[in-house]
Structures are given as structure tokens and as C-alpha cells.
Amino acid sequence: ICWSEQGGWHRPRVQPYGPISLDPAAAVLHYGQEIFEGMKAYRHADGSIWTFRPEANAARMQRSARRLALPELPTDYFIESIKQLVAVDADWVPMADGTCLYLRPFMFAKEAFLGVRPAHKVAYYVIASPAGSYFSGGVAPVSIWLSAEYSRAAHGGTGAAKTGGNYAASLLAQQEAYDNGCDQVLFLDSREGKYVEELGGMNVVLVYKDGTLVTPDSKSILEGITRDSILQLAEDRGHKVERRNVSIDEWREGQASGDIVEAFACGTAAVITPIGLVKSNDFEIGSADAVAGELTMSLRQELTDIQYGRIEDRHGWLTRLDA
Ligand code: PMP
């Protein structure tokens, strides 16, 4: 779908996958004016195809659009775009457990000019790709690298928007994580370098021994839809949930004293990943051979059971795509 200042949203269509042409002066190539979403289509045992909380992705994309001075795509256009693509790609939605069709809606400034201002011409696309199970050998705890030097998002910046620039800012830190034998990078807040924010592509949740789940509350992290759903499921089970600042020292001391009993990361791609080890230049939390926590794994099971239609969708989170 295209957007222009005069014409609004127009020209919705499904076209064969392939390169798109852009003017070399297209604003996105120079100023990074773009946003995206990540979601999945799941095939249920009866063959029907569903997606999870698309209204939440649409709303987040609208918030991202506001922050990046892009036009907001209405929720019904967003959901319709996914339905139309899946109608064409239905055969590509795999059946096996844990597999899905990954969906990537994105929007960018395509107007050609070299001044710094919001673009007047914008394009919105959705692409899709079948995805295998994230953990082929069973869900294993990951090691994460605490970045001492780099911030992902500054106070007042674009951290809460799903925009490429945030990921660009995280790439060097992600490479540093790999170089230190870790799978993901953990970012602290940009002002004090003290509070836990999130991983490069996942939110963080800590489980305390009294059953309370604690997750960082920050204006510079992405509000994960997986996290929101998991915390809802935990609340349904009677767990207390706290969204508040949590310092890296609280995590370190809590895990050393046994007050914190589980830690996990969550996001659309991996659903839930237990965190085994946090490594930094100065200290380590946990251990690389830690076993996945019990609550972590049972919340993971419950959420994936809802997504794959194996248990009742009591919150009305699923939207059917092929009917
Ligand atoms: N934080 C970041 C930086 C991410 O890229 C993602 C993945 N979209 C998340 C958190 C988790 O968000 P969600 O659960 O909506 O996938």
C-alpha cells in the first residue's frame, strides 16, 4: 500500500516477491525513517490458519509511526494486508509443531529529497517466510552479554518504537556478545547505566521466590506483545506482576541470595528463552549449564498451546486469517 500527503493510503495489492526499486535519494536510505513489526501465522491441527493479537501489532505500529513522523496505518488495513498475503501464501504456512509463517509488515519513507524533514511519500509492505522451530534441540537456556559501553536507546529517543535505527545501534553490541561466547546482548538504561532494559530483540522477566514476576518499566524499551501476554497468563494463575525499575545489582544480588529463582527473555521469534548466564567484564550471574525454570517452561507451554489452538483461547487473542 502507498501513502502520499495528497492521496492518503492507496493502491493496495499483492505482488510476487522480488526486488523493489527506490530512488537513491529516498529518505529511508539516508535518515532511517522506517518502522516494522514481527508476527506469526500458525496452522492449527484442523488446517485453519491463525495469528496472535494482530490488533496489538497494529497499535504498536501506529505508536511507532507517530514517533517516526510516518502516517498511521489504520488497524483494519493492517489486518487486511496480512489476510490478503496469507490468502495467497496459505500453502506456505507449515504444519509441524513449533513452525509458522513469519510475517514482517514494514513502512518506509520513499520520497526522494535530501533535506531533513518527514517524507510526504511512504510505502507499506508485508513480506512472509516459513520459519522452523526456533529451538530444534529443545528449549535451552541462553547466555547473555551485558554491554558496558553501548546503549540501545537514549532517554527521549526512539527506543519504544520498532524502528531500524534502534537495531542499527545494537549491532556492534550484538557482535560483542557473540565474541564473548554469548547469544544475545543485554542493555542497561542510557542515563545511569544501572537499570535493566531489554535484550537486542527480546524483553526480560525475572521470577522471585515468592512467585512475583518483575519486568523493567522503561520508556525506551519495546513494549513486547509476548511479554504482555505471558504476564497476563501469570496473573491468571495468581502470580503477582510488577512493572518497575530493576537494577542489574538487584538481579545479581537476588540471584546470589536465591530471591530470584528464574530469569527469561521473551519475544515473538523464540516465545520464551530461559536465561542461564549473564556475563559482563566484571561479574557473572547464573551459569551456562543452568536448567530452564519450571514456571518459565510452563508459561511457554501455555502460550504456545494457545497460539497453536491446543487449548482454549480464553482472552480472545487469536484472529483467523483464512476465512
Ligand atoms: N524488544 C525488542 C528490542 C524486540 O525487537 C522485540 C521483538 N519484536 C521484543 C522486545 C519483543 O516484542 P514482541 O514480544 O512483540 O515480539
From TrEMBL:
InterPro entries: Aminotrans_IV (IPR001544), Aminotransferase-like (IPR036038), B_amino_transII (IPR005786), BCAT-like_C (IPR043132), BCAT-like_N (IPR043131), BCAT_family (IPR033939). Pathway: Amino-acid biosynthesis; L-valine biosynthesis; L-valine from pyruvate: step 4/4; Amino-acid biosynthesis; L-leucine biosynthesis; L-leucine from 3-methyl-2-oxobutanoate: step 4/4; Amino-acid biosynthesis; L-isoleucine biosynthesis; L-isoleucine from 2-oxobutanoate: step 4/4. Its cofactor is pyridoxal 5'-phosphate. The keyword Transferase applies. The modification N6-(pyridoxal phosphate)lysine is found at K162. It catalyses: L-valine + 2-oxoglutarate = 3-methyl-2-oxobutanoate + L-glutamate; L-leucine + 2-oxoglutarate = 4-methyl-2-oxopentanoate + L-glutamate; L-isoleucine + 2-oxoglutarate = (S)-3-methyl-2-oxopentanoate + L-glutamate. CDD domains: BCAT_beta_family (cd01557). GO terms for biological process: isoleucine biosynthetic process; L-leucine biosynthetic process; L-valine biosynthetic process. Pfam families: Aminotran_4 (PF01063). It is an enzyme of class 2 (transferase). Keywords: Amino-acid biosynthesis, Aminotransferase, Branched-chain amino acid biosynthesis, Pyridoxal phosphate, Transferase. One of its GO terms (molecular function) is L-leucine-2-oxoglutarate transaminase activity. The keyword NADP does not apply. Its EC number is 2.6.1.42. Belongs to the class-IV pyridoxal-phosphate-dependent aminotransferase family. This is branched-chain-amino-acid transaminase. The lineage of its organism: Bacteria, Bacillati, Actinomycetota, Actinomycetes, Micrococcales.
